[in-house]
Amino acid sequence: MSQVFLNGHWLRPEEAAVSVFDRGFLFADGMYEVMPFYRGHVLLFAKHYARLERSLKALEIPNPYSEDEWLSICQTLAEQVPDANAIIYIQITRGAEYPRQHLPSPDLEPTVMATATHWTPPATTALPVRTELLEDIRWLRCDIKSISLLGNIMLKREASRLGGFEPVLHRAGRVTEGASCNYFIVKDEVVYTPPADELILGGVTRDWVIQVAKEAGLEVREEAFSVAELMSADECFLTSSTREVQPVGQIGDNQIGNGQIGPVTERIATAFRASRPYSLSEE
């Protein structure tokens, strides 16, 4: 059974507990990070660590460990699951204090937790899914990987109720992202994705897909596109740490292209799998 890393201690899951006065519990005052391990090898750890640091800095929460210490913690967690194929979840909150108050006391000691969950990295490109177009109701600092995910959860539930795998969000007609993913479209063999500004969480997988696509000889443009441009795209796909490259065949009642895996999407997905730190195709 995988252990939980909590405030410098290794505990069984049933032993791990935090104070009811933890500000993460009371106010969602904290951040998180998610990273995939392939046979004990993490994809782009430095980029995940840099995003962790950016979120902590934005929240003015001190980072309790160095980059090397975090890598050691994550590797130890990954080694506890089958084949060391793991999704590592890190959560850091501002800490706990009593009595409850909105303005935190200075110099609180952060609460630090990390866990590992076994996963099976995709061996082939997944079949296209249906998504649902929804208005982006979240706050305006989506670039911070905040544990305050109520808006994301509400949108994900609504998309599921409508029969969608994931929502595709927009603000006043400008496409932003999903509840837990980034979106790409393809038009005339050019790949487009929304810019990494405050309206989206710039995914590490998103960044890697951009690089992989460019190395495959594709033109990639990081620029805003409209709902109308989304609906008329030749291809669409979403990306995340756990899904890698996931084709989208339908948005609501609107079919994208022929509804199948597009050739550019397949090209990128194949190149992504080849770029992973451990190739499952070798088995």
Description:
- The longest helix is centred in the first third of the chain and has 15 residues, at 45-59.
- Helix 5 (204-215) crosses helix 7.
- The chain contains 7 helices and 15 strands.
- The protein starts with a strand and ends in an 8-residue tail after the last helix.
- The chain folds into 2 domains: 4-118, Aminotransferase class 4, branched-chain amino acid transferase, N-terminal domain (D-amino Acid Aminotransferase, Chain A, domain 1), CATH 3.30.470.10; 129-280, D-amino Acid Aminotransferase, subunit A, domain 2 (D-amino Acid Aminotransferase, Chain A, domain 2, Alpha-Beta Barrel).
- It is 26% helix and 28% strand.
- It is of the alpha+beta class.
- The chain is globular.
- The strands form 2 sheets. Strands 7, 8, 9, 10, 11, 12, 13, 14 and 15 form a 9-stranded mixed sheet that branches. Strands 2-1-6-5-3-4 form a 6-stranded antiparallel sheet.
Secondary-structure map:
Blueprint lengths: L3 E3 L2 E3 L11 H5 L2 E9 L2 E2 L2 H15 L7 H12 L7 E8 L17 E8 L10 E7 L14 H12 L4 E6 L2 E2 L6 E6 L2 E4 L10 H12 L3 E4 L4 H5 L3 E6 L3 E8 L2 E2 L7 H13 L8
Helix pairs in contact: 5-7
Largest sheet: 9 strands, mixed
Number of DSSP E strands: 15
Tally of structural domains? 2
Terminal CA distance: 25 Å
**Named CATH architecture of the largest domain:** Alpha-Beta Barrel
Radius of gyration computed on alpha carbons:
19 Å
Number of helices: 7
Helix content: 25-40%
Any idea of the CATH class of the largest domain?
Alpha Beta
